[in-house]
Structure to design on (141 residues):
């Protein structure tokens, strides 16, 4: 960054922010080039339905987020635009997909093993008669 020439059209204080923004735009551009190099059908054929849903949701969210930024740069308040409701709708579906993914990762309960564990862990009192009979037999010998 030291070799970059600072433009005098904007305050020096925001130069670092603008450089970071420019790098981010470059990263987004590279990612889009990568995604556009493979046809959508080829990409989706390699994925299971849950992964396909994730790709579609991320694509829709990204596109709407970029439109949000575009509206802001044009002086339109995106909070008062229908894009806000669309982003919220996509976020709800993203949460649903996350719940499904988390449910798949959750451990399964082996009910038989759990009941055996609990049964063996419980204390069972010994019958009073059996202990007296055992003691009487030992004292006579």
């Amino acid at each position: 960054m030291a070799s970059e020439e600072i433009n005098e059209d904007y305050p020096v204080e925001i130069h670092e922010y603008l450089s970071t923004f420019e790098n981010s735009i470059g990263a987004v551009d590279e990612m889009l080039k990568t995604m556009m190099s493979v046809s959508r059908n080829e990409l989706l054929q390699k994925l299971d339905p849950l992964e396909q849903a994730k790709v579609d949701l991320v694509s829709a969210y990204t596109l709407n987020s970029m439109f949000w930024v575009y509206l802001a740069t044009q002086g339109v308040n995106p909070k008062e635009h229908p894009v806000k409701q669309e982003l919220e709708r996509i976020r709800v579906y993203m949460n649903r997909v996350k719940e499904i993914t988390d449910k798949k990762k959750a451990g399964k309960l082996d009910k038989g093993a759990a009941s055996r564990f609990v049964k063996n862990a419980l204390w069972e009192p010994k019958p009073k008669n059996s202990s007296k009979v055992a003691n009487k037999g030992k004292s006579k010998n």
